[in-house]
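A.,

Following up on our hallway conversation. Structure tokens first:
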């Protein structure tokens, strides 16, 4: 299927699984051209990013994914549960640095297996990490005005109800719909929260509640191209039902010394570009498509060729705790590289502009804070406008 045919097919009704797999066999140049045309149809020349602070609420986690260096067991170096005082101090530092998003990232349900986690939560007055997280989101929203984005793993309906009261959006990486990856010796074998049905259920429960949702796939962990396509189609299907998927991330595996997959081959840049382009062609012109720039190191500007329109969260305050070896590019360099390729870089909030205008996606309390930070077009106000509004 030629690039023009690909674009016409996508814009009219979207690619089927068979068409997507066939498109993946096209030359990379043809695929990138098609993806770029589709991106321009929906997003024009605007590429966005969010100025955020990364708040690692706890590194304790009951899952043992073979590629993760973030999670820790009690007693290991780096094992920690942040206190409210630590959370607030970091959020206040971020506000002074001009951040507008507070990304809470943490291990999944550590209290299910660690008495140390249960004891910490008991001292704080909570039984579940998810309830403690909701309280910390409310604290940050109320005391700093930063917009929380909770990314705690699998969430049930009760947790999502609480998060909607204090979060602009929430997130959960689907990673992959393949249950095969949970077999012995594969990356999700010892990760009960990576059951695809559980993650899809979280996405659906968020959709039922009109909560803007960030999700995505992780590539290079042993999945096939067909499994990648299946995962992207599952995300598209969920969005077609509820209209709540605000962003899809294509994240590439990076090997690290202290993980079981330390010697596992990383996906090549060409493979990353191919998957991104297919994601754009599957998800269509209106979806926000992101690839983390820090995980492509010096090659990150080339990701623009594959149809992305967002760089994700960039922090002037904290490192990427999930990938500590990969520094975020300076925002000044991000802007220079983006503009050198004919795009306009815009700062967004934890909620994408099209969702800022949808009343049902925000609680009244969060709406009040968003109105202070958002420009008329839904992107972030520039710093001078924000200072005047706050004053």
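Then the amino acids I'd put at each of the 391 positions:
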């Amino acid at each position: 299927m030629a690039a023009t045919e690909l674009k016409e097919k996508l814009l009219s009704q979207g690619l089927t699984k068979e068409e997507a797999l066939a498109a993946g066999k096209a030359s990379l140049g043809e695929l990138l051209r098609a993806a770029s045309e589709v991106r321009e149809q929906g997003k024009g020349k605007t590429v966005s990013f969010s100025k955020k602070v990364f708040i690692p609420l706890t590194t304790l986690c009951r899952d043992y994914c073979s590629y993760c260096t973030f999670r820790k067991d009690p007693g290991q170096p780096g094992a920690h549960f942040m206190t409210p005082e630590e959370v607030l101090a970091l959020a206040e530092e971020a506000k002074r640095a001009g951040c507008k998003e507070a990304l809470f990232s943490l291990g999944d349900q550590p209290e299910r297996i660690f008495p140390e986690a249960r004891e910490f939560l008991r001292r704080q007055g909570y039984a579940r990490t998810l309830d403690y997280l909701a309280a910390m989101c409310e604290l940050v929203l109320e005391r700093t005005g930063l917009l929380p984005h909770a990314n705690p793993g699998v969430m049930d309906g009760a947790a999502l109800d609480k998060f909607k009261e204090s979060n602009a959006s929430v997130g959960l990486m689907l990673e992959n719909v393949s249950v095969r990856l949970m077999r012995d010796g594969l990356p999700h074998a010892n990760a009960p929260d990576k059951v695809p049905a559980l993650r899809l259920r979280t996405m659906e429960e968020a959709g039922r509640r009109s909560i803007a949702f960030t999700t995505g796939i992780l590539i290079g962990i042993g999945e096939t191209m067909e499994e990648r396509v299946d995962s992207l189609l599952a995300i598209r299907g969920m969005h077609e039902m509820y209209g709540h998927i605000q962003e899809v991330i294509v994240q590439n595996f990076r090997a690290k010394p202290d993980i079981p997959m330390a010697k596992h081959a990383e996906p090549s840049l060409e493979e990353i570009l191919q998957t991104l382009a297919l994601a754009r062609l599957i998800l269509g012109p209106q979806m926000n498509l992101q690839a983390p720039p820090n995980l492509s190191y010096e090659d990150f500007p080339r990701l623009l060729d594959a149809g992305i329109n967002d760089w994700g969260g960039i922090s002037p305050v904290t490192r990427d705790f999930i990938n500590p070896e990969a520094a975020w590019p300076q925002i000044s360099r991000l802007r220079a590289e983006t503009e050198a390729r004919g795009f306009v870089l815009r700062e967004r909030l934890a909620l994408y502009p099209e969702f800022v205008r949808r009343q049902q996606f925000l609680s009244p309390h969060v709406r009040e804070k968003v109105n202070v930070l958002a420009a008329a077009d839904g992107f972030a106000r520039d710093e001078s406008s924000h200072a005047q509004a706050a004053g």
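DSSP finds 14 helices and nine strands in the chain. Curious whether your intuition agrees with the design.

B.
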